[in-house]
């Protein structure tokens, strides 16, 4: 038996549920009043921030918050974007259906659920996802404008619903651009094929894991968004090397990754169990160097929210 003084010093695991109780009170009030309206958003965000701070400080366990999130979402918010993210129908939160729902601003029909979806879509992260589609379109514009004689070949890595491809081809039928799209999820491939059916001669789909297979035709532009922010640093470097290898000289690899500046992070992680590898510009630059990119061929840009960064590597 240790001396009493030593027993008293034994650390007791603190589990202060106050931030979770506060969050529950705020959510229940909003559920009872028919969902949040824009004037409530700042209050909800602040409450989630307090909860996030408590999790980061290890005052409350992340698992306890997630158990709560599942419970409240299943009871009151079934069918909302939040419930779909938490449900992980295809094994993880940011699947092609969720991304498609973000692009098309899908909301539940029932008014009391619809308000939660409007809150979801108002946040910085979904805005950044919609902005990255515009970012890809801008890249396609500039690369295809550079090519006056031969068509442009583009590799879209983890292409999901390929809604970005569909919209660009519909808006730019005169530009000669050919796309190879790779995705590991057969339902994503099927959905994307349907969306791109009207111009199937310009878009080829590969149902493959990009960590094991990439079509190696040689591309002027290699694009990947919504994949690298799920990868560890080691896998990031491995895949980036592979993408650089299939990019033609003079071409460009562009890879999206969420930034450490993400005001939606607590909402995503605590109420959606949507966890990403957030990275800084310097971190992305460093990973590009590890993949063998030359220092002066690397650039990091971002979309207007500043949430989604884009690592560019010129070949
Ligand atoms: C968040 S979605 C992004 C979709 C699309 N790039 C966009 O931004 O609209 C991620 C996609 O990556 C695919 N994916 C995840 N891991 C993959 C892998 N190892 N190989 C190929 N596709 C993968 C998923 O099936 C999903 O469709």
Descriptive tags:
Rossmann fold, 2 domains, binds S-adenosylmethionine, 7 strands, 315 residues, alpha/beta
Using the alpha-carbon principal axes, give the shape.
Answer: globular
- Say which molecules are bound, naming each kind only once: S-adenosylmethionine
Give the number of DSSP strands. 7
CATH architecture of the largest domain, please?
3-Layer(aba) Sandwich
CATH superfamily of the largest domain: Vaccinia Virus protein VP39
Side-by-side strand order of the widest sheet:
3-2-1-4-5-7-6
Q: State the helical fraction.
A: 40-55%
CATH C-level of the largest domain: Alpha Beta
Instruction: Please state the CA-atom Rg, rounded to the nearest Å.
Output: 22 Å
The structural class is alpha/beta
For the record, give the distance between the C-alpha atoms at the N and C termini, rounded to a whole number: 68 Å
Helix tally?
A: 13
Low-confidence stretches: 1-7, 9-13
Task: Characterize the structure shown.
The protein has 315 residues and is an alpha/beta fold. The protein has 13 helices and seven strands. The chain has a seven-stranded mixed β-sheet, with helices on both faces. Helix 9 (163-171) links the parallel strand 1 (152-157) and strand 2 (177-183). The chain is globular. The protein starts with a helix and ends with a strand. Bound molecules: S-adenosylmethionine (SAM). The site of S-adenosylmethionine has 19 residues, from helix 6 and strand 2.
